[in-house]
């Protein structure tokens, strides 16, 4: 069977023998209603746990809209026309609106990138800025000791509207909701304090209740104040198939339930070989982001198996601390030992990869230099086919295979197993 995997903006096709293939994990069949901008408009008219946005905001109020940066597939350009129309219905002057791209610790955008992300319609009407690590307002601490330090544009606004896409997150449970605030417009110190809880068993993909990181995120977001969210779920073609709007927790939970119905994949057994892709650009821009698909794939591979990760990683590792940790480690175990005694944002991604390496080998098909790939304790290949052929040589021609072409979104779970830790 020929299976296509997106790598950046190209497609790499691999031939997997039918007798070896356990399955191709794509979305579940669900009944869809409206899609795209029409679904966004429906959600805005039917908010969950909240009045309509036009009944919340008032003329003269300063409004901050927080959205995702270039490393996320959030289609801000699609939702903005309907959102701005809703705000104008309330009498809001467009000059009182600032759209803030939540960078977290990621790089700044060019103006051209900002325009592409938000769309011409919105970019020409409202002010658009990147969040800042330096110009912040301190708003207190969470119970876990996380400083609530928020970008000034967001903290000083009268109203805050959070945008985001909902997908599985390897330690926050799900993306979306309050993550626009933490880590979106928070400081490095705050993000590190929050993320250091990733080593706790309940900090895992697909878990909300009792997840210490998600609870910390939502506590910080509540202190800052979120007046309204507009979150979307995307299909494998990055089309909006579900939108939820309203209360920052209740609407988010409804979106998570839809995501589970769509992307939680029960499997009968783990495979010897798992082939996984983030689904292409922009989610595989660097190894820092591509790691998310790897982390989902780990739940489908047998101990001692092989995970083949396909991702462009055109920008390399994607984080200076990540690169430094990799350079300073002699073995994967060094990274695991280091994160338990010295949590450092960026280094935690290297440790997460090392944790997968405890259970399986990782082959990487990317645009990265082979030497750099090997420095990360991964094995480089030019094509997915070459990687699979090599995996068969190592594990035998009867080795079983699972394919995850949209691994950043798809979460495997073996039937009868508890949610993965």
Structure keywords:
alpha/beta, Rossmann fold, six-stranded parallel beta sheet, 421 residues, 2-enoyl-CoA Hydratase, Chain A, domain 1, 32% helix, 2 domains, six-stranded mixed beta sheet
Word description of this protein:
The protein folds into two domains: 172 residues, LarA, C-terminal domain (2-enoyl-CoA Hydratase, Chain A, domain 1); 227 residues, 3-Layer(aba) Sandwich (Rossmann fold), CATH 3.40.50.11440. The model has no long low-confidence stretch (mean pLDDT 95). The strands form six sheets. A six-stranded parallel β-sheet has the order 3-19-15-16-17-18. Strands 6-5-4-9-12-13 form a six-stranded mixed β-sheet, with helices on both faces. The protein has 421 residues and is of the alpha/beta class. Helices cover 32% and strands 25% of the residues. The chain is built from 14 helices and 20 strands. The two termini are 32 Å apart. The chain is globular and about 70 Å long. Helix 9 packs parallel to helix 12.
% residues in beta strands: 25-35%
* CATH homology group of the largest domain: LarA, N-terminal domain
Judged by helices, strands and strand pairing, the structural class is: alpha/beta
CATH-defined topology of the largest domain:
Rossmann fold
CATH class of the largest domain: Alpha Beta
Helix content: 25-40%
How many distinct beta strands? 20
Give, in spatial order, the strands making up the sheet with the most strands: 3-19-15-16-17-18
For the record, give the distance between the C-alpha atoms at the N and C termini, rounded to a whole number.
Answer: 32 Å
Low-confidence stretches: none
Largest sheet: 6 strands, parallel
User: How many helices?
Assistant: 14
* Structural domains: how many: 2
**CATH architecture title of the largest domain:** 3-Layer(aba) Sandwich
Radius of gyration: 21 Å
Report mean pLDDT, rounded to a whole number.
95
Shape: globular
């Amino acid at each position: 069977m020929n299976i296509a995997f997106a790598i950046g903006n190209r497609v790499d096709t691999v031939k997997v023998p039918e007798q070896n293939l356990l399955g191709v994990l794509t979305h579940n069949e669900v009944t869809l209603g409206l899609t795209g901008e029409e679904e966004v408009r429906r959600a805005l008219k039917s908010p969950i746990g909240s009045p309509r946005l036009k009944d919340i905001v008032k003329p003269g109020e300063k409004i901050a809209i927080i959205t995702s940066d270039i490393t996320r597939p959030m289609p801000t350009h699609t939702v903005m026309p309907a959102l701005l129309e809703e705000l104008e219905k309330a009498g809001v002057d467009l000059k009182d609106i600032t759209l803030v791209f939540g960078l977290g610790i990621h790089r700044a955008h060019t103006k051209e990138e900002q325009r592409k992300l938000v769309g011409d319609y919105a970019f020409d009407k409202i002010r658009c800025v990147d969040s800042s690590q330096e110009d912040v307002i301190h708003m207190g601490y969470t119970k876990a000791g996380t400083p609530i330090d928020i970008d000034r544009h967001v903290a000083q606004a009268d109203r805050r509207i959070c945008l985001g896409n909902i997908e599985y997150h390897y330690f926050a449970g799900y993306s979306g909701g309050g993550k626009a605030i933490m880590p979106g417009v928070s400081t490095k110190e705050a993000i590190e304090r929050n993320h250091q809880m990733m080593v706790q068993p309940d900090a895992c993909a697909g878990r909300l209740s009792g997840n210490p990181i998600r609870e910390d995120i939502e506590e910080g977001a509540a202190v800052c104040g979120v007046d309204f969210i507009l979150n979307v779920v995307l299909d494998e073609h990055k089309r909006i198939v579900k939108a939820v709007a309203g209360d920052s927790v209740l609407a988010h939970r409804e979106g998570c339930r839809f995501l589970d119905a769509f992307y939680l994949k029960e499997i009968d057994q783990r495979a010897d070989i798992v082939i996984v892709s983030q689904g292409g650009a922009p989610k595989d821009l660097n190894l820092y982001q591509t790691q998310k698909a790897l982390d989902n794939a780990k739940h489908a591979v047998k101990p001692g198996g092989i995970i083949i990760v396909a991702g462009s990683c055109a920008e390399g590792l994607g984080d200076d601390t990540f690169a430094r940790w990799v350079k300073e480690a002699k073995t994967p175990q060094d990274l695991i030992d280091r994160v338990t005694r010295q949590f450092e944002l960026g280094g935690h991604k290297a440790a997460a990869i090392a944790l997968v390496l405890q259970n399986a080998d990782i082959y990487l098909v990317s645009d990265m230099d082979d030497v750099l790939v090997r420095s990360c304790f991964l094995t480089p290949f030019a094509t997915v086919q070459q990687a699979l052929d090599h995996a068969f040589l190592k594990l035998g021609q009867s080795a079983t295979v699972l394919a995850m072409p949209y691994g950043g979104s798809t979460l495997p779970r073996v039937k009868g197993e508890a949610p993965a830790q």
